[in-house]
Amino acid sequence: MSTVEVHKQITADEIAHTFEDEVPKGADLGQYAAEDWLALAIFWVMALSVFLQFFTRYVLNDSYAWTEEIATYCLIGVVFIGSAMCVRLSRHIQVDLVFRYLPHPPARALSTVIDLIRIAFFGYAIKLVWQFIQIIGDERMTTIKLQKGFVYYAVLLGFVLMFARSIQIAVENWRRGFSILERPGAFDGTEG
Questions:
Q1: 147 bridge partner residues
Q2: Element (H or E) spanning 155, and its range?
Q3: What is d(CA 156, CA 11) in angstroms, rounded to the nearest whole number?
Q4: Hey, CA dihedral for 152, 156, 158, 159, is it positive or negative?
Q5: Structure confidence by residue, pLDDT tens digits, 31-83
């Protein structure tokens, strides 16, 4: 059996014309929500802070101490506000193996219970973070002497957004009659 590859010879003009056939489509920014843009903005503040830390430490040989603290707090904001994006898109870790073997009625009931548990968890997390802010929110950051409450409010905002998005997802699941757990192929395009 021969393993020789056979290639069809094409001219430079044929290659050039293949690029003319594909007209680039405009960017669709409609799929992004407010939490996506906010997480992106905080990410860039973090990235600039890390770059400034690198530049001052290795180029100027005199690092700014506050850049590390700002980058750390920005990372916290990116994680919690970005988590709202993951809730909206149902991208958090989930185990759907059980749903493959359950009949539709028990799978539907279990999926609804999971939606309710998720809503309750985020609601309770909002309460806990709010209590935490009331107790410790006036503490000062180490190097820049701003209140740490700003960081905790970003965490609170993340949980509020996750709570709202989980309610939105639960309502969509109830209206649709199935969730991503029950039929993942309907969400990723593999279900025909």
A1: 140
A2: helix 149-176
A3: 60
A4: positive
A5: 889 999 999 999 999 999 999 999 999 988 888 889 999 999 999 999 999 99
**Residue 2 one-letter amino acid:** S
Q: Which residues of 54-67 are buried (b: 16+ CB within 10 A; e: fewer)?
A: eeeeeeeeebbebb
Q: How far is CA 15 from CA 6, 9, 12, 23, 25, in A?
A: 18, 11, 5, 15, 21
Element (H, E) at 74: helix 66-88
Residue 147: phi and psi, rounded to 5, are: -70, 140
Q: What is the pLDDT of residues 127-154, one digit of tens each?
A: 999 999 999 878 888 888 888 888 999 9
Contact predicate 184/96, CB 8 Å: yes
pTM comes to: 0.81
